[in-house]
Amino acid sequence: MKLWEKNYILTMILIMTVIYCSLFVNSYSSFQMNFERVCTQAIQTEKTISYTAKNFITETTQYKKLQLYCETMATENIHFSIFEGDNEIVTNIPYAYSFPQSNVSVIKYENKHYLCIYETFAHLHDKFFSIYYIEDIEEIYSNHQRQIVLFSCAGAFISVLLAIILHFAMKKMYYPVNNIAHELRTPLTSIQGYAQYILYGKISEEEILYAGEQIRLEAIYMNDIIDRLLIMENLKNGQIIYSKVYTNDLFGIIKEHYPSITIDNQTEYITGDRTLLLSLFLNLLSNTNRNGTQIHITTHDNIITIHNKDDHIDKKMLKILNTNRTIPKNKVHGKGLGVSLCHEIVKMHKGTLYYTSDSDGVYITITFSK
Fold it and tell me: Which residues on adjacent β-strands are paired with residue 365?
């Protein structure tokens, strides 16, 4: 598993933990608020019933008024039982249940939740009465379950959305690092091979000089990769300076690196960062020069075209190069870091970079904004 993939998984685990914890804490808080609201209303209702019952309890009526009141409350879906000691006086609770003798409690009966409120009071000749008030609160539990399902779906949707965004962001972030590793491995392997050849091989002085020259060239190539890496870092940090970059001066430096190229320059200057533009053209020329030296550069207004008659790129690679996607490992040498860097430079100059390939060779077209 790649480093960025490990970091991606760990980051997603952390994000999902935070998301789901936040959602479930919010769900629990909402349930608690609703439960407390229902409890407050139920206690007020129970107090009203208790006050009315005290007025109805008399020896002369033998609880007839209380029974009538109890029946009336049943029609309004208000259920309670009143006891004198252990004897039940009146009740409109439609089921038998052994109620807990605690002030406020939640009981579950036949898969439904009920709020039970218990109160005792003394009346007439020190007789003790108790009242049980029952209220169906299954609705708030059902709402809580629906809210959990809803929040779970919302959490899953947010997680998937963030996972997609984070995946592409982290992959793009680590993309240059991966390509740098592949680009550096080839020259390092070559340097190691030539060094062992010098140390352990019985070779002539001429062969030592040749091996030393190869090591020097590979070291220059590695230094070029490091320079490109530093340029990419500057690009990410936005450390660029825009000015008029005169094309004659720019192409003069390019001719020093690639004397065989021909140039038809019809553009006086380009607005941009001189160092980045020079790096852009040197990278593009370095890539295509490996496959042939018949290179011609033409410029017209804000369009610059690099044409190599000897180069050829297949359709699959063209699609990768033009979309700046990850280049396969077996083809990354000489293209991966350079193309990625070129796309970044052109993007910073609000332009486009496009590759085409046909029987006449490869065309690289850079269009800058006017």
Answer: 305, 354
Between CA 207 and CA 364 the distance in angstroms is: 39
DSSP labels for 39-50?
Answer: HHHHHHHHHHHH
Q: Within its chain, how far is the Cα of 83 from the centroid? A: 62
Residue at token pair 């030592």: 208
Q: Which residues have C-beta within 8 Å of that of residue 18, sequence separation ≥ 6?
A: none
Give the domains, in start order, of the chain with CATH numbers. 3-147 (3.30.450), 240-370 (3.30.565.10)
Rounded Cα–Cα distance for residues 207 and 214 (Å): 11
318: its two tokens: 């063209």
Q: pTM to 2 decimals?
A: 0.50
Q: Residue 347's closest CA among 364, 362, 317, 367?
A: 367
Give residue 238's pLDDT.
61
Q: Which residues contact 48 (CB under 8 A, 6 or more apart)?
A: none
Name the pairing type of β-strands 352-358 and 79-84.
Answer: unpaired
Is the model's pLDDT at 306 over the cut of 90? yes
Which pLDDT tens digit goes with each residue over 126-154? 678 888 898 889 999 999 999 999 989 98
Q: Report, in angstroms and rounded to the nearest whole number, the Rg of the chain calculated over CA atoms.
A: 41
The contacts found for 348-352 with CB under 8 angstroms, 24 or more apart, are 348/235, 348/240, 348/273, 348/276, 349/271, 349/272, 349/273, 349/276, 349/277, 351/302
Tokens representing 274?
Answer: 């001189």
